[in-house]
Design a protein that fits this description.
The complex is a heterodimer. Chain A is built from 17 helices and 27 strands. By secondary structure, chain A is α+β, with helices and mostly antiparallel strands. In chain A, strands 6-5-16-17-18-15-19 form a 7-stranded mixed β-sheet. Chain A has a 6-stranded mixed β-sheet with strand order 8-3-2-14-21-20, with helices on both faces. In chain A, strands 1-13-10-9 form a 4-stranded mixed β-sheet, with helices on one face. The radius of gyration of chain A is 23 Å and the shape is globular. By secondary structure, chain B is α/β, with parallel strands linked by helices. Helices cover 28% and strands 24% of the residues of chain B. Chain B has 7 helices and 11 strands. In chain B, helix 2 links the parallel strand 4 and strand 5. In chain B, helix 3 crosses helix 4. Classes of the chains: A alpha+beta, B alpha/beta. At the A-B interface, strand 12 of A face helix 5 of B.
Chain lengths: 569, 267
């Protein structure tokens, strides 16, 4: 069938409405306004610039798919908007009490603050919501003249020869099985001289770009974590300004991760659990671990009697310095979590994302002034990153997570040592993709807590489907599934046979995967309408279909419609 | 043919609503808002009529009834679908009203426009009153047909034939124009706005009218003029947990029948 794609011509296209691209788009408009002002006053020569800039975001509103802790370090925002506090900035609460605790089954041990290097203390940070931050930034970006299109996903990258020349957006109104609703609308081809990919962790198009231009060559594979988070409202006894990070219970010593509990205004608590996806246990379920964490006496003292009001889940890039891909390609730049700019021991990525967006904007502005956007003009982005705190911070933290390969306690000591000293080369060498660490059920190192079934109740302990409801997730039931299993027979003959269970039915934090049927009818059912777009499945799926192309059995492409509608996450 | 469409911005249907401490309203801060889905049918129908006749103008109106609403976003969405111009009725005096004062304000605004056809959604999905459109028609003294799922307009004869789904059949109502209809699901499938159309919508006229523009007295509108008072909002009682009956099918069915008979007492 011949498609009638509309097209749209822009100079710069930002794909993804997260902190990196929003900061980048805003910075670009600032640089252009300053440039034009200098020309109008005669301070500079040359032609004024008036490029058309667009930003697309797959969430129904900007921020609808954004979830983070979030402790927000304002360093990059101060650079972008020195007067941000006077512009209806959505956060006012800063961390007043921070502690790092080790949880045992019943007790807790506060780790002394002096163990933490000064740069890893949290006191300058705001406690806030990434969804609210993004929505606020989007308002400023739009007011600055950028065309912001929410509810618009990038479906594929457009190429012109060897060069990226934009993105085609998703077709709307498709029906599963190839049909079309009467209001079907084919995607728009947005042509751009420079396309900036900031889709968050494991972006559909960012990964396409990385593979096409071999941007991970000579780098370590990215390693990831899954974070799940709930907002819990208690009737009284909030603790605004509290920030607790925990190690230990309920995670086994071979799981890299921990919990957090942040006290917010309005008697709200943000409670979450983050676990490195390199776990070995095929039945590991981070959502269930969060429920166990919430039952711990130390956490219960804050949230007892409360009610879950929101839920979200998202993967994080934890590979750090050694896993950052080459961040540019002909006609394209990579920013934020799509490039892996996250500092693991500091537990933060938002300000690195924003800073990378600012540096991308600086690069693009120079290219626009010079009039050419060739790869040589864009490649300076990498050098700008290298001399900024994005890469110097990541370099200092480069061995922290790897030290945990020795186990939790040695890892903590060794990892802490690497942060204090900046020493390298003390951690085991080879890092493999997360899914390769999975082991058969009977060989996996588990702990006694993981064998107890998690218990749910109607109040503060939530089962997965209740939490999916709290995420505001919606996909049209008749839309085509955005998740495919390439070879369903291998789920049985390969995956379940090898691991003793179907890991996807456990690791998915939104119950998308279900094992149904008996005997010959046994199969994995995909409840795609539950999907919160966290990307755990594409990363942790253990069936390697084509190792050279990083193709695993589960294929996840951003859907043209739907997803979560996060509120305050 | 000039067509006016009144729309309301409502909380997104997947929003989680909480009741304010004083129990007289929901908490609106932080909610996402969308165009009321039934109003989208109305906008789409107006655009189709204009396209069929290859002439006319579609004007969209919306009233800000709460400070947290941003009706300009909803109106821009309708302009992106293809409406020609938009009017936002916004004044602190309008806030906190009921369906009657909403109708009063809309009617006062519509008197300043000329139109042949007036469209509403059959109800707003937030308060589910379904009362504003009918009251506007009454205030303007024009005929109305409610809950329409097919509409035929005869521009030459200045009449319309509205189809309504009724129990076991379809009722056809003919009316002279100008007239008002409220739109029901099934009337059409609202279009997705295209990206170029979203960009163009920013250039289309969006007027803001306040209380003085439409010459209404402050005590007649908003909370002052309202005839209804919300006494209290309550959440529905939580649904008790379901029960799964284990065992093989034959035994489970037996047990189910027993429970339905003895415990639920419905068979």
């Amino acid at each position: 069938m011949k498609e009638n794609h509309q097209s749209l011509e822009v100079e710069v296209l930002f794909v993804g409405g997260g902190p990196a691209n929003l900061a980048g788009a805003l910075r670009l408009t600032q640089l252009i306004a300053q440039h034009n002002h200098r020309i109008s006053t005669g301070e500079a020569s040359g032609a004024p610039l008036d490029p058309r800039i667009a930003l697309i975001e797959k969430g129904r509103d900007v921020g609808a798919h954004a979830v983070s802790g979030a402790l927000f370090d304002p360093i990059a925002l101060e650079e972008l908007l020195p007067d941000y506090r006077d512009r209806d900035f959505p956060f006012s609460l800063r961390v007043t009490r921070h502690s790092l605790r080790y949880l045992t089954t019943e007790g807790n041990l506060r780790l002394p603050d002096f163990l933490l290097p000064p740069s890893y203390r949290q006191q300058r940070c705001y406690i806030g919501s990434l969804q609210k931050l993004n929505l606020w930034l989007a308002g400023l970006v739009e007011a600055a003249g950028v065309h912001v299109f929410s509810d618009t996903c990038g479906a594929r990258i457009l190429y012109d020869g060897g060069q990226v020349c934009g993105v085609q957006t998703g077709d709307k109104g498709s029906i599963a099985g190839g049909g079309r609703k009467p209001n079907y609308m084919p995607g728009t081809r947005i042509h751009a001289r420079v396309t900036v990919f900031g889709e968050g962790v494991h972006g559909t198009l960012a990964e396409d770009l990385i593979h096409r231009y071999r941007m991970r060559e000579g780098r370590q594979p990215q390693s990831y974590a899954l974070g799940v988070k709930e907002l819990i409202r208690v009737t009284s006894g909030g603790a605004p300004g509290l920030a607790v990070h925990t190690l230990g219970y309920p995670l086994g010593s071979r799981v890299f991760g921990g919990g957090f509990c942040y006290g917010m205004d309005d008697n709200l608590f943000a409670v979450g659990m983050i676990c490195g996806l390199d776990w070995d246990d095929p039945q590991m379920d981070v959502h269930a671990q969060l429920q166990r964490f919430k039952k711990h006496p130390y956490i219960q003292r804050f949230i007892r009697g409360g009610e879950v009001v929101a839920y979200g889940a998202r993967t994080l890039p934890e590979g750090g310095y050694c896993a950052v891909p080459r961040p540019y390609a002909p006609g394209a730049l990579l920013v934020g979590d799509s490039a892996g700019f996250l500092n693991v021991p500091y537990l933060k990525g938002i300000h690195y994302a924003m800073k990378s967006g600012l540096l991308a904007a600086d690069t693009i502005f120079d290219a626009l002034v010079q009039g050419h956007t060739s790869v040589s003009a864009l490649s300076s982005y990498e050098a700008r990153l290298a001399s900024s705190y994005v890469m110097t911070d990541l370099y200092r933290a480069r061995n922290f997570k790897r030290a945990f390969a020795y186990g939790r306690l040695p890892g903590l000591l060794l990892g802490g040592l690497t942060l204090w000293t900046g020493l390298g080369s003390i951690a085991p060498g080879v890092v493999r993709e997360d899914f390769r660490y999975l082991r058969p059920l009977d060989q996996a190192i588990r702990n006694r807590w993981a064998r107890e079934p998690a218990q749910y109740d109607a109040g503060v302990l939530a089962d997965k489907l209740t939490d999916v409801y709290h995420s505001g997730t919606q996909h049209r039931e008749d839309q085509p599934s955005h998740i495919r299993i390439l070879d369903p027979t291998r789920c049985l003959t390969d995956c379940i046979a090898r691991f003793g269970d179907a890991p996807c039915t456990h690791f998915c934090p939104a119950q998308v995967y279900e094992l149904v049927g008996q005997g010959v009818t046994r199969r994995i059912q995909i409840n795609f309408a539950n999907c919160v777009h966290c990307k755990t499945c594409v990363i942790k799926d253990p069936i390697d279909i084509s190792p050279n192309d990083d193709v695993q059995n589960i294929v996840w492409r951003a859907p043209a419609e739907g997803g979560p509608r996060y509120q305050g996450l | 043919m000039k067509i006016a469409v009144c729309i309301k911005q409502v909380p997104a249907t997947e929003s989680k609503l909480t009741i304010k401490r004083d129990k007289t309203d929901i908490e609106r801060a932080g909610l996402s808002f969308v165009v009321n889905p039934y109003d989208e049918f109305a906008v789409e129908e107006a655009l189709r009529i204009k396209a069929r006749l290859d002439a006319g103008e579609v004007t969209v109106l919306s009233l800000r009834s709460h400070a947290a609403q941003k009706p300009e976003d909803a109106l821009r969405a309708c302009l992106a679908m293809g409406a020609d111009k938009a009017i936002m009725l916004s004044d602190p005096a309008f806030e906190g009203g009921d369906s009657y004062v909403t109708a009063l304000v809309l009617a006062a605004a519509l008197r300043r426009l000329s139109f042949d056809l007036l469209l509403f959604g059959k109800q707003a999905v937030d308060d589910d009153d379904g009362a504003v459109g009918i009251q506007v028609a009454e205030l303007l003294g024009i005929p109305h047909v409610g809950v329409v799922n097919k509409l035929e307009v005869n521009a030459g004869a200045r009449t319309m034939l509205a189809h309504r789904q009724i129990e076991g059949g379809i009722e056809l109502v003919e009316s002279p124009l100008p007239a008002m209809i409220t739109c029901q699901k099934g009337l059409n499938e609202p279009r997705y706005p295209s990206l170029p159309d979203i960009m163009m919508a920013k250039q289309k006229p969006l007027a803001v009218w306040n209380r003085e523009t439409i010459a209404l007295e402050p005590e007649s509108v908003g909370a002052h003029g309202a005839r209804l008072t919300i006494v209290r909002l309550e959440s529905p009682p939580p649904r008790p947990a379901g029960r799964i009956i284990d065992g093989d099918a034959a035994a489970a069915v037996k047990e189910l029948v027993r429970l339905l008979h003895e415990e639920a007492k419905i068979i």
